[in-house]
Design brief:
By secondary structure, the protein is of the alpha/beta class. The chain is 38% helix and 21% strand. The longest helix has 24 residues, at 79-102. The protein starts with a strand and ends in a 6-residue tail after the last strand.
């Protein structure tokens, strides 16, 4: 059986064997255990599941030093970034506890029996229920926030779904450690056995997605990886929902007014955004639309200086490093594309390093190749002449998770026009900010049209729970067979009764 090896990306050297790849028989046993755990996890109820999530958050924070040390050794992301990621991860778990207690996520709705213009209506009561065991694929670039204890896991557990995580090969030791912490805490809390499981290895991931006990899949990764999993799902006798976060360019538009007001600042901060975490963010700005002329030149000059001073950075694994090297070189050789700045070369580095790169192109003749995502610290400046040319160029850019408008003080007309154009191509539109960094909140949306995702749902924020729930309606059911939240007189959560929204605080 093949060993799962943990590698240090700073040196490129293998450090330890973490586990053996999970066999098909082991995958099947874990899936069956998850299926058996599902009814008991649902029956724990909202309050107990909220307490479980809080217990998991506490357990992770109690092992903060160990987790951050191993994650840094495996990813080279730095203790500061990883401490922040662990804090975010614990916050996500606790926030979903609040979601459970508040209860509106259930969409509880009651229509009493009565007469309607269509004739008599029966008593109808509807709410959302857990979909069943969920397969979660950890992301390479977020070993905590989008991995074993990340948002997909938190939202699935909150929904009442057991979770089987496919550990990412870039950080198997981190994945195994946090899994061990979570399982120990869940067991001590009294969660059903099978609530959490982990598998290692590419084939194990394929076996996991194919298993009939798995009722949904959450994935963060490449379009190619997502399509491979979709192909497996389509071959199942019972295809299941697939929620994939895949590819994103995240265009930034700098208006002429913004360039005139703060061109240098925008240039410097944009470089800081696309080189953050070695450019390994799904929200990295990969295209920056800058007006032609002297004011736009100030933006580009600031970007050029910042990139030229940027050091070489360590990427997460050998595959990402090789792809970055080849893809960035191909981008620079496209017709109409020029290299305008390159960061410092690594000094004797043996690991998976990348040199930051800044390219430029003309909006009037934007090569198709520069609208393909390149994972790593590279971005392309696109110079445009006027609003018409800008809007035409934006129309040819693939949809993304985010789109950003940098505007002048008090400027509204052009930003409104640009935002309107971008709205159909992005899930989140930012003004006078930078897309790297996704706040976990009730109003957040992290998703977008294909190829950024294949779903209308979000993978960040409280609405992420909706992915792992399905609606059921009870017709003419007595109170004794209904979930508590749908029984007559229940007031613990917001409910829509005969078309009127009732909340616990107002009563109506």
């Amino acid at each position: 059986m093949t060993d799962v090896v943990s590698t240090d990306p700073r040196t490129g050297q293998a450090v330890e064997v973490v586990a053996a790849e999970t066999s098909p028989q082991e995958v099947a046993a874990l899936c069956e255990a998850a299926l058996s755990a599902a009814p008991a996890l649902e029956e724990m109820g909202r309050e107990r599941r909220a307490a479980l999530l809080e217990t998991l958050a506490d357990a992770l924070e109690a092992r903060r030093e160990d987790v951050v040390a191993i994650a840094d050794r495996e990813t080279a992301l730095g203790a500061g970034r990883l401490n922040g990621e662990l804090t975010r991860t614990a916050y996500q778990l606790r926030l979903f506890g609040e979601v459970l207690r508040e209860g509106s996520y259930l969409e509880a709705t009651i229509d009493h029996a009565g007469d309607t213009p269509m004739g008599p209506r029966p008593d109808l009561r509807r709410m959302l229920l857990p979909i069943g065991p969920v397969a979660v694929f950890g992301a390479s670039n977020f070993p905590l926030a989008f991995s074993v204890p990340g948002g997909d896991t938190a939202s699935a557990l909150a929904a009442g779904c057991p979770v089987i995580v496919k550990a990412h090969g870039s950080h198997p030791a981190t994945s195994q450690l946090v899994f061990d912490v979570l399982v120990a805490a869940a067991r001590e809390f009294g969660a059903p056995e099978g609530t959490l499981a982990i598998v290692h290895g590419q084939q194990a991931g394929a076996d996991l997605v194919a298993h009939p006990a798995v009722r949904a899949v959450g994935f963060t990764g490449s379009v190619r990886g997502g399509k491979a999993l979709l192909q497996i799902i389509e071959g199942r006798p019972d295809p299941v929902p697939f929620f994939g976060e895949l590819s994103s360019l995240n265009p930034v538009v700098v208006t002429p007014a913004a360039a005139a007001e703060r061109g240098q600042q925008i240039g410097e901060q944009t470089v800081a955004s696309f080189t953050l975490g070695a450019g390994q963010f799904c929200t990295k700005p990969g295209l920056v639309f800058v007006p032609a002329g002297q004011d736009g030149d100030a933006v580009v000059d600031a970007m050029t200086t910042a990139v030229a001073q940027a050091p070489a950075q360590v990427l997460l694994n050998e595959g990402i490093a090789n792809t970055y090297g080849s893809t960035s070189a191909e981008l620079a050789q496209l017709p109409g594309v020029k290299e305008i700045a390159r960061g410092a070369q690594p000094q004797g580095a043996k690991g998976f390093t990348a040199v930051p790169l800044l390219l430029s192109a003309d909006a009037a003749d934007l090569p198709h190749g520069v609208t393909e995502e390149c994972f790593g610290p590279v971005s392309t400046v696109v110079r445009y002449e006027g609003e018409e040319q800008l809007l035409a160029a934006l129309e040819g850019v693939p949809s993304s998770l985010t789109a950003t408008v940098q505007r002048g003080q008090g400027e509204t007309e052009l930003p409104a026009t640009v935002a309107r154009a971008l709205r159909d191509h992005a899930g989140r539109i930012l003004f006078d900010a930078y897309p790297t960094g996704v706040a976990v909140s009730w109003a957040q949306h992290h998703g977008g049209p294909w190829p950024s995702t294949n779903s209308q749902h979000t993978s960040v924020g409280t609405s992420a729970i909706r992915r792992f729930l399905r609606p059921v309606t009870w017709q003419g059911a007595p109170d004794e067979v209904l979930p508590a939240e749908l029984t007559e007189g229940f007031t613990g959560i917001p409910r829509r009764v005969d078309g009127v929204l009732h909340t616990p605080t107002t009563g109506a």
